[in-house]
Amino acid sequence: MPENSSPRGAAARHTTPSHSIGLSFSLTRRRTLAALAAVTAGTAVSCTGGSATNAATPAPVRSVDPLGAEPFTPVTGDRSAVLMQVVAHPDDDLYFMTPDSQHLLRAGARLVCVYVTAGESLGINRPPGAPIPEPDRSAYSAARHQGLRQAYAEMLGMDRFTRWQRSVTELPGGLRAETNRLVSGARQVELIFLNIAMLSAGRVRLPHLWEIPGVTARTLVAEGSPVREVQSYRHETLVDVLADLMDRYRPTVIHTLDPDPDYQVHDAFHPRDNDQPGCSDHRDHTPVALFTWKAMSQWVADASRRDGRAPRFLTTAFRGYYNQRWPFNLPPAVVGRKARLLEAYGGAPDWPCGNPAGCGDYSQGNGGPLRNRKGWIRSTHHRYPGALPAPVTDHRGNLVAYGVLGTQAVQWRETSPGSGRFGAPRNLGGGPLAPTLSAVRDTTGRQLLFGLRFSALEGQGQGNARDIVVLEEISPGGAFGGWHRLGTPHDDPEDSRRVGAPVAVATPDGRVHLFVRTAGKGLATRVRDAGGNWGGWVQLGGGEIQDGLTVLVDRDRLVHVFGAGRDTVHHWAQRNPDGAPLPVPDPGLPVPAHRPGAVLTTDGAIALVYRTPADPQPRLYTLNRRGDGPHVTPLRHFDGYGPVAAHPVPVPGRADQVLLAGTSIDGEVLLRYGTGTGTRPLCSPGRLVPVGTPAVLPGGPDSMCVVGMAPGATPWIWRPAPTTPA
Predict the structure, then answer these.
(1) At what angle are helices 137-155 and 332-346 packed, to 10 degrees?
(2) Among candidate residues 347, 114, 390, 350, the one with its CA nearest the CA of residue 238
(3) Are strands 314-318 and 253-257 parallel, antiparallel or unpaired?
(4) Residues 208 and 108 in one domain
(5) Does residue 386 contact residue 437 with C-beta atoms inside 8 Å?
């Protein structure tokens, strides 16, 4: 949420040329380090959230045991899905977590939103064009709470001025929080306001609460709140409160902000605006995300020890002000729905809301978010993109899927071939892990699983580190060995925090190629040879890309990697099986809105499928080997948003069909066989609304399946009947 912002025209375009990545990154690091050097007790700490020097000793951290493998809480017949969102400010959820939250609420999930700060900023609630009023932090916080009530009533399909039930929730340590509750039939929303001041006594802010031992932050009393006393939070207090709320509500899905935001150069082309120094996010977003991840780890550890079972939940982390820095990825219909929620949140002074402190955050009303040049409303980005879960076949051809449940890696097996049902999850440990995994099967039939681990998540001047980790079967279909640390392409732990989700591919020569996006927004690789030995990390250069990589092996058994850039799709390719993929000259592809899907055509050419910014219709771009531009195939009747996966499906007696899988405007799974102009998509049975991006396991017409995660933290299998392309 902006502390002070004014709508101004269209979003600025990033103009850093791809060949200047090294300079761009080095400037960013120097500016970040300069910002770190300038930190004092009276200023906000830097974007890194890294280690600080202080003699105080923090309390011991109750963290997930990466070797632990407790069974998970079983799914009971009366257990419904619960989505918990933990954000820094009122409206972070509306800007950055919708439309995902809208879709899950519509699918039947109960929604619980936890707002860590009071959102009081300077206390100025100014309608557009009006004179600047006198600051009143208590009233502004209360007006933003009212705006949230208006927005979520709208999301429930109710009158925006519907009266909510307001009460006080008792928290650990004698703390109290205001809770607002609204029920519409079987659907329910709860808003919980911790109301920690954005600027507390002694100029303490949330970054200090995360980083500096012994710091205390105070709460702000919102006007009209049933909580009337000022309270105190320390680092461990906030962790305990968030972990307690998780244990109390037992969410099946948790939405967090970005714990490790991108480095960002701030200059005339890319003004800092509300960003923290050196990074593309607000200074409060990062510590709230770190507190949330630490609380999840504590909840999992404590609940597992107490119950003998690990809590069952999924996690999605969302980018914040990152939305301003990359091409927009939502089409007008989805942006319009977000705008209606923000219009209800923004309100106006003449609205009959019945709240004397104000009827919303007036700077966000009257169409302001749509006019704002920063364009936050026009995108929704996952911090850890990838398929949920990752399906593979074992050495016998049986369906197996891997995912992250309760921050731990898990394996699901289909109960019997073709049954369409997964058995109970098998806990493989490894946590706490980021939400997405990459799974491959090598030429010996052994399965390998790659994840991004929060190796240290301490705060208070202690460790804060990330690592790529791998788990391998000892023999095909046999037991797994222990988790093995592969590190990251960076020596600096602050750089390591910025690496992306791992993506791997096995090649016919016995190698396994691992790829990650780097802190400098480039590409790096590490390769395991046919003997099982890992080489070192190699940075591959090339243009700046978003996280979310697509990997493909062509008919010559060469590896290709694709990433979405600001200007085009960036492409790396091997020249020979022994070499690393090298940057490929730009084939003239248009700007992508998200990561591309990739598929080999019948004649061996590579085709990419994706949407351009704000376009609901994807297109198939077949790369011409002569380098004179791609052949473009519009994919009508497939409107939606987000990534589109592409896979070949063998058809007896005919050329392979291209199968496309994506998400509709309403967040439901869509499939399409073929690229003909008259081809219509298949809607999923029961209008499946997945958490994250579902995956396709390709095969013949009778063996292909779609695998995804339901809001209740359970996986599903869809084996659609093949159709005849038009």
Answers:
(1) 140
(2) 114
(3) parallel
(4) yes
(5) yes
Separation of alpha carbons 354 and 541, rounded Å: 58
Distance CA 128, CA 113 (A): 28
Domain that holds residue 631: 590-726
- Distance CA(239)–CA(520), nearest Å, equals 31
Tokens of 430: 């490894």
Q: Which of 301, 403, 314, 305 is nearest to 65 (CA)?
A: 301
Shortest CA distance to 388 belongs to which of 374, 406, 405? 405
Question: Does residue 243 sit in the same domain as residue 357?
Answer: yes
Residues whose CB is less than 8 angstroms from the CB of residue 454 and which lie 6 or more positions away in sequence, other chains included: 293, 297, 432, 433, 434, 465, 466
pTM: 0.92
Are 149 and 279 in the same domain?
yes
Q: Which residues contact 556 (CB under 8 A, 6 or more apart)?
A: none
State the Cα–Cα distance between residues 382 and 360, nearest whole angstrom.
Answer: 27
- The C-alpha atoms of residue 609 and residue 623 are separated, in whole angstroms, by 11
- List, as one string, the DSSP characters of 518-571: -TTSSEEEEEE-TTS-B---EE---S-B-S--EEEE-TTS-EEEEEEBSSSEEE
Residue 332 and residue 394 in one domain: no
Q: How confident is the model at residue 281 (pLDDT cuts 50, 70, 90)?
A: very high
Q: Token pair of 539, please?
A: 């940075």
> What is the rounded CA–CA span in Å between residue 322 and residue 274?
11
Grade residue 57 by pLDDT with cuts at 50, 70 and 90: very low
Q: Mark which of 532, 557, 582 sits at the end of a domain.
A: 557
Q: Which pairs from 505-510 meet CB under 8 Å and 24+ separation?
A: 505/440, 505/551, 505/552, 505/553, 505/559, 506/440, 506/441, 506/442, 506/443, 506/448, 507/553, 507/557, 507/559, 507/577, 508/443, 508/553, 508/557, 509/443, 509/557, 509/577, 510/442, 510/443, 510/444
Q: pLDDT at residue 460 above 70?
A: yes
The mean pLDDT of the chain is 89
Beta strands in 3-101 (DSSP E): 82-87
Task: Give the chain's end-to-end CA distance (angstroms, integer).
Answer: 47
> Around Cβ 80, how many Cβ atoms within 10 Å?
13
Residues in the chain: 726
Residue matched to tokens 């107490």: 306
Instruction: Burial-class residue 724 by CB neighbours within 10 Å (0-12, 13-18, 19+).
Output: exposed
